[in-house]
Design brief:
By secondary structure, the chain is an alpha/beta fold. The protein has one domain: Spore Coat Polysaccharide Biosynthesis Protein SpsA, Chain A. Helices cover about 35% and strands about 20% of the residues. The chain has nine helices and 15 strands. The protein has helices at about 15-25, 60-65, 70-85, 105-110, 150-165, 225-240, 250-265, 265-275, 280-290, and strands at about 5-10, 30-35, 50-55, 90-95, 100-105, 120-125, 125-130, 145, 180-185, 190-195, 200, 205, 205-210, 215-220, 295. The strands form three sheets. Strands 3-2-1-4-9-6-13 form a seven-stranded mixed β-sheet. Strands 5-14-7-8-15 form a five-stranded mixed β-sheet. A hairpin with a 4-residue loop joins strand 10 and strand 11 (about 200). Helix 6 crosses helix 7 and helix 7 runs antiparallel to helix 8. The protein is globular and about 50 Å long.
Length: about 300
Amino acid sequence: MAGFSTVSLMRESPDVVAKFAAYYRELGAEEALVYVDGPLGDLAGLEAPGLTLIATDADFWTALGVARPEGLEARQVAIYLAGLARARTEWLAVVDADEFVFGDRPVAEFLDRIPKDADSVSLPTAEAVWGPGDDIDAPFGSTFFRTRWSSDLAWRALRRPVYGAAGAFMRHGLLGHTMGKQFLRVGPQYTEIGNHDTKRGDAVITRRASALGLPKMYVGHFDAIGLARWTQKWRQRISRETLTSKMAPVRQSQMDAIAAALNSGDAATRRLFKAFYGLSGLQFRTVAAMGFGFRRNLF
């Protein structure tokens, strides 16, 4: 059966990296290639089966023959190509530290069913949120997922009734990315590997898994792993410690709202976090009835 590895650019705590590596090892990944965004720092000495840590320090960029890109997305493109050249498996999953592939069949079986003429296949996003019975204070404690609304008309008409004021900060029912993540076949040549799709020449070659007759496979996106990590991530973005060059307007509006909440104190930050990533029973029943929500405990 088809083997796979993962490639990621991370700046995470050891516990998050270890959880990521353990999850994918259990899923069947032969190797998790984790390019650390800078020196190893706190990750130095971290060991886990199948985990390979690569520091992207000054020596790394010199050896790669390019200057370190200022923008996060440009650095990701560079390390995805580097990871592809290093991968020893048939497939490579392009995922972030907060993204976990899952579905209704083993990954190896899914990969074996991909047609030979498909070199890049994307899985849809399932965004992790806290629903009834979940502990809102527990990192990775979210066991509910919401997916992209398929109808623009329905989203525009119902986003406020379903999500209230938080709906204005969402795209098609999600706060994070709506475009999914991809598996790449190792061996073929690619011009550019992005976060969500891949180009050969000027053409995007990424195909959706559902269009290939392979539905119900997802990339679970924990856009908020927990309140503390979420707060740290956005403080880094607001302070420009982490530069993102392709932030969509609605994502920018999220950042503005989060900055205002952070400036107002812990209580305001917690309220916004719950409004963004918490689901009431009625909200869950509504999105589930429409086919855009379900429950699954990945951990």
